[in-house]
Amino acid sequence: MTSNQHITVETLYASPSEVRAFVAALLVAHGLTEDDARIAADCLVRADLRGVDTHGIAWLPGYLDRLRRNLINPRPSLQPRRITPAVSHLDGENGFGFVVATRAMAEAMDLASATGIGIVSVKRSTHFGMAASYLLQAVEAGFVALVFTNASRAMPPWGGREALLGTSPFAAGAPGGEKGAFILDMAPSVAARGKIRKALRLGQAIPPDYALDADGRPTTDPARALEGVVLPMGGPKGSGLAMLMDIFGGVLSGAAFAGDVRDQYKSFDAPQNVGHFFLAMKPNLFVGLDEYRARMDVLFERVRSSPPAEGFTEILTPGEPEARQEARRLRSGIPYPKDDLEPLFAEARKIGLEPIPTYDRPLGGSIS
Amino acid sequence: MTSNQHITVETLYASPSEVRAFVAALLVAHGLTEDDARIAADCLVRADLRGVDTHGIAWLPGYLDRLRRNLINPRPSLQPRRITPAVSHLDGENGFGFVVATRAMAEAMDLASATGIGIVSVKRSTHFGMAASYLLQAVEAGFVALVFTNASRAMPPWGGREALLGTSPFAAGAPGGEKGAFILDMAPSVAARGKIRKALRLGQAIPPDYALDADGRPTTDPARALEGVVLPMGGPKGSGLAMLMDIFGGVLSGAAFAGDVRDQYKSFDAPQNVGHFFLAMKPNLFVGLDEYRARMDVLFERVRSSPPAEGFTEILTPGEPEARQEARRLRSGIPYPKDDLEPLFAEARKIGLEPIPTYDRPLGGSIS
Description:
CATH class of the largest domain in chain A: Alpha Beta
Number of helices of chain A: 11
Oligomer: homodimer
Structural class of chain A: alpha+beta
Shape of chain A: globular
Largest interface: A-B, 78 and 78 residues
Strand order of the largest sheet of chain A: 2-3-4-10-5-6-7
């Protein structure tokens, strides 16, 4: 391990609406319809707004690459097949995960509007980015929601040392009253690989429960950890959750599963065949809507006013840090590392698209 | 901390079917119907068979006490109200949680049989023991299932130091092929209070992430931990799951929530008003049943044959340790600490019921 060192990352700010239009234009140039391009751009930019940079526009060059390789179908015909009044199946036809997932969640909400609850199972999809995107779609339309997906190999089952399961999130959301919504989007691993990469860059050790090295031994060295695997959160618990995501996402739907979902950054022989599962439910099936909202407010109020433990100054509800970040970045613009923007601007130049303006300081005020 | 010391716990074995009949007789004597008594006895004894002693017959005296205080209603009229073809609501009328939950899961399966999926929300229930009991009912009948419940205060939200949320499990199950079913029943806390009590008894320290003392500080002293609170698993993740259980169990159903579910061991002024949520789903909505079962077998085979990490000799799937324990105890009988049986036999003597035979060694062979 080297000692700590200063890392200078040049940060540039951009306007969310300009980024959104820019991303949509890149996607239209790669064959998506205007509508579908806007859906994908909304999801990507919303991830950046919420500080979930691991699912934002920095990953767009990879998606564009797969579009050009015909591994993402820019024009799927998305026709959910109704199996019962509460159940639909959607063949994603290898479409862009953002578009497929948005279509599926819309169908789940349609089913739930009529039957109280609706589920949609999806096969032949691709990476859909931030699961919270679809929770937010449902919650903002007034529905309780679950969003499950499987993913390519990234984590061993508990007790193992080779990646087999995905680090697909468990995601659940519920509309709130006046105190905001409940948005839980949690990976089943102790820590994201991104955190380990950051420790490497900063020359820091990682806690011993984050990862195993290539020999299956716990390690605090981020370089050795990156050659190995991240560990499931809570041992058998995170491992069980990851299997559950594979059962709901892959086994039930007819998609790839059990380690067969292709890695979008490593596997270029065929589309990924990701599987998803969406559930939407009316919140006022058993109590009235006003009562539901008032009850959510009571829960949030009691959680937030809990006396803090040593080292804490406030208690946040799930999704609250991201909602705060979104409110800040809607004012300040989104800060991007310059190194993340360059490849996007290079993509733009290839197709004669003008890069968007960027600024070396926050727009319209400082970041609090 | 004292140093390690030998603890002698006298263990007695009993036949599962004799225990079941004994428990049912005690419950009938407290006003339950024969059918309902058998349901509750099945759940309690199955927990003991599976090694989930924290939800077994050792807790029966507490339940009987609440029956005698009229805080559990021995004769609820359980009439699920159908709200849509996929949705029912059940007023548990303060009935025994085992009976209420079994009725609700049966209704969810009825709905799912017709509509592919069914959900049942329950209010005015009481503690329902092991969540896996209801997963097993569904899975053994061929359904995928989710079982959520809320519970009395036991754990702070992440960052807090006072108990507000329950340690209600997140529970999910799915039928398998030839390699067994998937049964995930996981508390959102790092460790159960039972583990901390055991460390105290053995004079051992506990890991620093298990609990806070009464001042909200991490502690490795089990005595101080028991004066404080257990911590959520994975920090905000376990805390978020516990809130989700309270939303699905309590907020939506009309039951008590946000810390208002009464503690069955401390609160004797009114029934608990626990809320539950049950989901049942056909596994063959999107692929055929044979294909579904074959896919589950592939997943289980790949998980179990994963190369083990240092310190592990085999990889188990969720529910597999409990299924193995159940197979062993069906042969050996169930081992009980003598101290757990005495109060039950005292209850039996009160009503002129004969205690069951117990043995100082395993029945029909040794425990492997």
